[in-house]
Amino acid sequence: MARIRLGMVGGGNDAFIGGVHRIASRIDDRYELVAGALSSTPEKAKASGEALGMPRIYSDFKEMAIREARLKNGIEAVSIVTPNHVHYAAAREFLKRGIHVICDKPLTSTLADAKKLVKAAESSDALFVLTHNYTGYPMVRQAREMVASGAIGKIRVVQVEYPQDWLTIEQDFKQAEWRTDPARSGAGGSTGDIGTHAHNLACFITGLEVESLAADLEAFVPGRQVDDNGHVMLRFRGGAKGMLWCSQVAPGNENALRIRVYGETGGLEWAQEDPNYLWYTPFGEPKRLITRGGAGAGDAAARMSRVPPGHPEGYLEGFANIYSEAADAIEAHRDGSKPDPAVTYPTITDGLRGVQFVDACVRSSARNAAWVTLDR
Amino acid sequence: MARIRLGMVGGGNDAFIGGVHRIASRIDDRYELVAGALSSTPEKAKASGEALGMPRIYSDFKEMAIREARLKNGIEAVSIVTPNHVHYAAAREFLKRGIHVICDKPLTSTLADAKKLVKAAESSDALFVLTHNYTGYPMVRQAREMVASGAIGKIRVVQVEYPQDWLTIEQDFKQAEWRTDPARSGAGGSTGDIGTHAHNLACFITGLEVESLAADLEAFVPGRQVDDNGHVMLRFRGGAKGMLWCSQVAPGNENALRIRVYGETGGLEWAQEDPNYLWYTPFGEPKRLITRGGAGAGDAAARMSRVPPGHPEGYLEGFANIYSEAADAIEAHRDGSKPDPAVTYPTITDGLRGVQFVDACVRSSARNAAWVTLDR
Amino acid sequence: MARIRLGMVGGGNDAFIGGVHRIASRIDDRYELVAGALSSTPEKAKASGEALGMPRIYSDFKEMAIREARLKNGIEAVSIVTPNHVHYAAAREFLKRGIHVICDKPLTSTLADAKKLVKAAESSDALFVLTHNYTGYPMVRQAREMVASGAIGKIRVVQVEYPQDWLTIEQDFKQAEWRTDPARSGAGGSTGDIGTHAHNLACFITGLEVESLAADLEAFVPGRQVDDNGHVMLRFRGGAKGMLWCSQVAPGNENALRIRVYGETGGLEWAQEDPNYLWYTPFGEPKRLITRGGAGAGDAAARMSRVPPGHPEGYLEGFANIYSEAADAIEAHRDGSKPDPAVTYPTITDGLRGVQFVDACVRSSARNAAWVTLDR
Amino acid sequence: MARIRLGMVGGGNDAFIGGVHRIASRIDDRYELVAGALSSTPEKAKASGEALGMPRIYSDFKEMAIREARLKNGIEAVSIVTPNHVHYAAAREFLKRGIHVICDKPLTSTLADAKKLVKAAESSDALFVLTHNYTGYPMVRQAREMVASGAIGKIRVVQVEYPQDWLTIEQDFKQAEWRTDPARSGAGGSTGDIGTHAHNLACFITGLEVESLAADLEAFVPGRQVDDNGHVMLRFRGGAKGMLWCSQVAPGNENALRIRVYGETGGLEWAQEDPNYLWYTPFGEPKRLITRGGAGAGDAAARMSRVPPGHPEGYLEGFANIYSEAADAIEAHRDGSKPDPAVTYPTITDGLRGVQFVDACVRSSARNAAWVTLDR
Q1: Which pLDDT score, from 0 to 100, does residue D92 have?
Q2: CATH number of the structural domain spanning residue D368
Q3: Mean of all residue pLDDT scores within chain B
Q4: Is C143 left (phi over 0), alpha (psi -120 to 50) or beta?
Q5: Once rounded to an integer, what is the mean pLDDT over residues B219-231?
Q6: B310 min Cα distance to partner chain D (Å)
Q7: Which residues on A lie below 8 Å from D291 (Cβ)?
Q8: C299 and C175 both lie in a single domain
Q9: Claim to verify: residue D100 and residue D141 sit in the same structural domain
Q10: Is D313 within 8 Å of D276 (Cβ atoms)?
């Protein structure tokens, strides 16, 4: 099967996430990166593209979309890895021209943009894949599979958190700068950057949807314009309840995304920093440690795994799994077939839910943590 | 120094916590248990007392208070270890007669009783010690000392939780029965039984007071009359914020009380099930593991410790520490002196705060998790 | 049942282990400490005894044995907690007079003394209990029970280690001084002080006996007269093999006694510093965490346990368990009955094996780690 | 810089390690796989090569070496990923023709082959890189850097182990088959397959060399022709001592390679299954957790790292690091320059030491664990 011709928007020299997407696309050798608008500054776009040996270099994503769509062997898919506020405009141009979009999260910086993008995607034949990369971890798939199979019974309680500490003090480097600027990041700070990951993970594993929430957001660092800590109580459709904590001011936490799900007959616990382990307790029995590839791990995890148990896979492999799921879907799309039903990736619907989550957090917090619904 | 003559109310044969108090009082050999009304059922009181070789056996705490107060060598202190709804009536009788009270938590089953008991204590020369035993763990003392000394700077965020799983299904044994009966336990279920511990621990370590809270309580098990899961957002006086989770329906959790405190310059993490460890991260430095008795542990922990580092002390030693602090205070009281300023134990004020916490949780939850203050 | 009248030899003011024995004897309230020769220095014996409110104070253990044996209510048992080289002489005096001996480990400082003490014990009607206290931990009992019941099949490999770090540098306080003096400690340094614990634990859990060993001992700290690090390969009767490491110069280790046992069908792992957990892996199934008092824990652990799961018990409770097993045996001895068959404690035979282990380590190391048998 | 043209010998469809090498070579995008003799069975070689879209397919490594050496754009380097006994013959052909060799470990299946290969490498201008991949983990580099900088002082004790459990019972699949066949694997079973990793890791981190060892090897599974468990005592040049345990019959262990190094002033601990953590204890201070990319991590780890702290890197990234070090060296070789002095990778000398280690283990064990030197 020929490799998928891939383009990239954003991800120039000093960006972080662009490099991650590129590695992720290479790990399973199913993509070939052939075009990019890595920066909107022409010199930087050129330098960054050349450093990567990129065949076709652009500095304008619209121009790139137009030209690539016309090429006989133009890109089939594009990765959008810009700051949040550019996602909508960029994605629209590619969707419009039938080029599949693999977009970083959150979907957009505003709810209005998110809704417009949903329409754009609905009008397009192209696929839309959102890189909520944590859903690519094998043991996250394992957890989802176990919940679906009834291993812990009807869910009652979800505890999810994503603490970091890098914004404990004021930071002035690039990553911090745009992530704390509401014009580029969106109205949510920690809620948008990492709270969305926590929200998405909770929904992905449980199969539940947040119906309403009550949020108490705070910007602890003086002068910060967006929240750097969020306390959120959740109510899921169907009666389950949850708590979500996101923070960028919790010293001692790097990327401590962690989820615990409790049902009528058992519990599951998973932590992103130790991703090859899933703790499972059937009520009344000893806690069990299920390892990636080890005894007790099922098909959903096995599909997402490359090396034997005890040889840890990490963040990049989880990210690569999203790219491989996308590759399955894109390859099926080439000939109009359907991908394997096991293929799963976050879609534009998940993206909209994420933006609605941030929007709801901000609205609730502005009303003294009143309950608000996500739908608006 | 002669051992303190101790009595006990409650704690008959099939009780759990009475036995714990008795061991705790023995570990440091500063008490002598000489009288008891271990049950209100005369036969059971007699059988339980005899089994313990108790010199003076009563079946009525009031009679016990009256008689002991008259004896030349009557009890100097009494441990009250009955179900919650009896605390007030029993404590009052001993306080009235100048007998020191060591009372299990929560202080009372109702806020009205708590307030009356505060008055009774204020009118008495006797001491009142509340066994919020988790405050007796050496590394909890260590954490409190570090916060007070500024090791983590001004506090921003407190995450505290106390999940259990024993009430995941309906239980009908004695411990479960009274703890899920609002008439005996109080209006709070998990909030009263374990949420109060979490609340107390957060305040003890941080030195902060909860100003207001928003609580979403739930009774997940059908037919249960009190909450078995509580999600609470906290606002502390001075601007810190927190989340508190208590649950009795979280499979895989035994007594997983855990607290994390984050300040402007560092973080602290402690878990009751692994109590000899305290994790400390000064922002921008590697995380450090401070062990009981090991390098980095200070005076406050050393006072509460019996054996060298690496030999774990546990729940009973922590409980015994409260008894020893009480013994220091009682011995000082004997001759009208003041105990060592380092002596620290939970008082009736902490008890009132705990009952106010439960009351606030119940009130907030009844109003759809509206913010309510603790003072009422 | 009347409490057992207990005496103590050694354990004066500045000793460590004496205090531990006293707490251990109190926790379950089955002993009453009524006599002591806490020091061979009369002033110190007096001061130490008075500080404890000891009714009868001696400064000579022989005199104590003679007098107590004559008293109507003299001691029924004696705890011997002196430095190792005194164990033999002291124990002999009490055994000779029918007073039960509870003796700290190692049994003696020389193999000759150990053999003489075995004879003394055989000639006496009194019981001899050796406080290899780690065998008192509930989850050690659990492990032993599981091995005996075949949960891991025939044993192949035993990995046991006991690293500490307190002698990483030269120390001059009392505890270090006698433990590094071969005249008082015996020919083994780390092997005698902690290697014996590791050896004993391995045998206790597996039910196996070490047939031969090859040891490479070293004194890393200049001028030290006894080993501070020992590497030992073990061959058990029946074909199992093992490795044993003991060290007092391993920075970062406090009392990190840890054992791992692997059989034909499963594995078990336990660590003294986290004693409430036992890890169990049936081959081909996920690893399970068995907790003290939790699901999967059996009768052997339950007998040794006081509080519910999730409330950690520690070193002192494990030590107290040895005292309670001894109390069961002593009480049965009072009326000539047999104790409950479940009663288990280390005996003089275990003590002899321990001294043989140290002797074998020293002999082997002197012969460039040649294989030597323990029997001699 | 043009990507390095890479070939591969071995690694056909049903092999495990070939796929790992291919991913490792892709992660940092510095290699292009253009030729392969993936199997010695022509049909399988063809099918495997086509499945990978391999431009030039061979079924004979000698033919491949000859032809590629003649091509203008023939391969610059070859990865040899066959069973051990083929390493020597294959590597020789490429070295002879100036093609760099990246070879899986152990170097060869016999000591004689190893010595011949050393000569072949010495006679060649080409580079020889041995994929002792665990040395590619960032925190292993961190440990090595810390030891070299004196962070733990002069080394006294090294504890290293590599337990697995997959051969607990007889297995008949391909991976098990050749690894337990002395003709293909070499005289060492667990010692050759994983003991060499442990040996190499100990030497890599400490900078020490094993002078002599005493080994007690065993084949626990009936009928097995090579050891499946090895107990080894080590003596390093300069006076440090160590223990090494390798096992394939330890249920509950997947790839539990773990090393602990203790020096005069501190200790270090690292475990392969949790590779982003390094535990560091300066004697007399609290234990510190150094994380990949976090505070306390230095240049040696940073060079080997792609994503921020808290986003785990794993086995494949560690493997890729070896490939990237090799790429640095190969690129420098292209123009006759020297690579950055920081470039570090296991060489043929390390490979010879590994084979000598296995040889010494087998010789020692045959002589009842007598001490033997590695040099022979």
Answers
A1: 98
A2: 3.30.360.10
A3: 96
A4: alpha
A5: 95
A6: 13
A7: 254
A8: yes
A9: no
A10: yes
Residues B77 and B166 in one domain: no
Please indicate if any CB of chain C lies within 8 Å of the CB of D266: yes
Contact of A115 with A268, CB cutoff 8 Å? no
Average pLDDT, chain C: 96
The encoded tokens of residue B84 equal 């919650």
When scoring D154, D190, D220 by the number of chain C Cβ atoms within 10 A, the one with the most, hence best to mutate, is D220
Residue B41 DSSP SS3: coil
CA distance D100 to D91: 9
CB-CB contact of C102 with C74 (8 Å): no
Which residue of D lies nearest to C161 if distances are taken between CA atoms? D159
Contact A312 D254 (CB under 8 A): no
Assigned domain for C150 exists: yes
Provide CB contacts within 8 A for D117, sequence distance 6+: D87, D88, D91, D92, D107, D108, D348, D351
Distance between CA C296 and CA C189 in Å, rounded?
Answer: 38
Using the 3D structure, point to which of B126, B151, B181 is the last residue of a domain: B126
Range of the domain at C40: 4-126
Distance from CA of A288 to the nearest CA of C (A): 4
Q: Do residue B234 and residue B303 come from a single domain?
A: yes
* Whether C27 and B22 lie within 8 Å, measured CB to CB: no
CB D316 within 8 A of CB D310: no
Is B322 within the bounds of a domain? no
* Residue C191 belongs to a domain: yes
* Chain B neighbors of A250, CB-CB under 8 A: 157, 260, 262, 267
Residue C179 has pLDDT above 80, yes or no: no
Do A150 and A34 lie in one domain? The reply is no
Q: What is the mean pLDDT of residues A15-27?
A: 94
Is A126 in the B-facing interface, judged by CB distances under 8 Å?
A: no
Asked whether the predicted pLDDT for residue D186 surpasses 90, the reply is no
pLDDT at B278 over 80: yes
Most confident by average pLDDT, B240-254, C174-188, D1-15: B240-254
Determine contact: C171 vs chain D, CB below 8 A: no
Decide if B285 and D295 are in contact by the 8 Å CB cutoff: yes
- Asked if residue A226 and residue A279 are part of one domain, the reply reads yes
Task: Using an 8 Å CB-CB cutoff, list chain C residues near D159.
Answer: 161, 245
Least confident of B153-157, C173-177, D22-26: C173-177
The CATH number of residue D73's host domain is: 3.40.50.720
Sort out which chain B residues have CB atoms less than 8 A from A265's CB and list them: 168, 251
- Which residue of C lies nearest to D157 if distances are taken between CA atoms? C250
In a domain, D339, yes or no: no
Residues A363, A350: Cα–Cα separation, whole Å: 20
Torsional sign, CA C163, C169, C170, C175: negative
Query: For the segment B182-223, what is each residue's pLDDT rounded down to a tens digit?
Result: 888 788 999 999 999 999 999 999 999 999 999 999 999 999
The closest CB to that of B27, out of C26, C253, C256, belongs to C26
Same domain, C179 and C104: no
Give me the residue from D286, D289, D290 closest to B295, CB to CB: D286
Most A-contacting residue of D26, D258, D272, D273 (CB-CB within 10 A), to test interface? D273
All residues of chain D having their beta carbon less than 8 Å from the beta carbon of residue B288 are 286-289
**Mean pLDDT taken over chain A:** 96
Q: How far apart are CA A323 and CA A136, in angstroms?
A: 9
Do B111 and B250 reside in the same domain of the chain? no
Is B368 near chain A, with CB under 8 Å? yes
Q: How many domains does chain A have?
A: 2
Last residue of a domain, one of B101, B126, B151: B126
Pairing of strands A241-247, A210-218: unpaired
Give A278 to chain B, closest Cα distance, Å.
13
Render pLDDT for D271-330 as a digit per residue (tens, 0 to 9). Answer: 999 999 999 999 999 999 999 999 999 999 999 999 999 999 999 999 999 999 999 999
